[in-house]
Design brief:
The chain is 66% helix and 1% strand. A two-stranded antiparallel ribbon has the order 1-2.
Length: 304
């Protein structure tokens, strides 16, 4: 019996079956099925929720800390200018102005003390040496407070104390030189103003000269009644001249006299300082203020 070796031929690539034409209702149903649906979060199981709860330390629990949604407030956001936060330069400007004032006072103090120190020398070499000492002392008094404060913050307390001691020495030296400069110049200017000849002084001097000439003529032949009268007139004219010169001396330093009157007027006469008191106060301030540049510079650096 002969075997049938004819194999059935199966094509490798079969043509897909033709799709049937969809109706309008089928198209609408397929479109509704293709719409994306929001993915719902999967609920955690009891084991996952307990495992996540063990990862949070108990001290950070909002309930234990007494925090709720009502008490937690968001931090304020910095003001933005475009994408750049707006800075507040007021503090920096104040610090820069304070540092500028400190350098200006230091420059005045160095000039004053250097001039006075140079005036103490008896020769040119001694004058220049005194000038170098005065300038160096003022520079130390200027920069030492800032350095001492930095050393103190760095924990080097012993070195900072040594720096403050050296600053105190140079500060006393600078104040002493400032007192010498201020007192010398104030005295020279006061004497110059007090020795000026005003119209009142000129008239009093002329009247005294006339009285002295009349006395000399009358007393030439001997001392008599008219001679004594001319002598009395000379004494009166001399007193008038002294009063005129005294008024000029008092007006040579009008600041102290005005300060005395102002204090007496404000206190209703309870305080009665003298002109010498205000002269000493002015002298101390003029000598002290130019020497505090180092302190102001330290404050200005700390305020930045």
């Amino acid at each position: 019996m002969a075997e049938d070796t004819t194999a059935s031929v199966i094509p490798l690539h079969q043509a897909p079956p033709k799709k049937k034409a969809r109706t309008n209702s089928a198209r609408a149903k397929a479109k509704r099925q293709r719409k994306p649906q929001a993915a719902k979060p999967a609920a955690l199981t009891d084991e996952e929720s307990s495992a996540s709860a063990t990862l949070i330390p108990p001290e950070f629990s909002p309930v234990d800390l007494g925090l709720t949604e009502a008490t937690v407030t968001p931090l304020p956001r910095p003001k933005m200018h475009g994408n750049i936060p707006v800075a507040r330069p007021r503090r920096r400007i104040s610090a820069m102005l304070l540092s500028t004032a400190a350098l200006a006072l230091a420059g005045v103090g160095i000039t004053m003390n250097g001039w006075f120190a140079r005036s103490l020398g008896s020769s040119d070499i001694a004058s220049w040496l005194f000038l170098a000492v005065g300038v160096a002392a003022d520079l130390v008094a200027l920069v030492m407070p800032t350095c001492a404060a930095a050393l103190w913050q760095a924990g080097q307390r012993v070195t900072a104390l040594v720096a403050w001691i050296f600053w105190a020495m140079t500060f006393v030296f600078a104040v002493t030189a400032g007192i010498g400069f201020a007192s010398l110049n104030i005295a020279d200017s006061t004497i110059t103003r007090a020795s000026r000849v005003t119209p009142g002084v000129a008239s009093a001097q002329a009247a005294l000269n006339d009285a002295m000439a009349a006395r000399d003529r009358e007393c030439r032949n001997g001392v008599g009644r008219f001679c004594r009268e001319r002598e009395a007139t000379v004494n009166e004219r001399r007193q008038a001249l002294d009063a005129a010169m005294k008024s000029v001396e008092q007006s040579a330093d009008p600041q102290t006299e005005a300060a005395v009157r102002i204090v007496g007027w404000i206190s209703r006469g309870a305080l009665r300082p003298t002109g010498d008191d205000f002269a000493m106060l002015r002298l101390v301030l003029l000598a002290l203020l130019p020497q505090i540049g180092g302190i102001l510079l330290m404050v200005g650096r700390s305020a930045r």
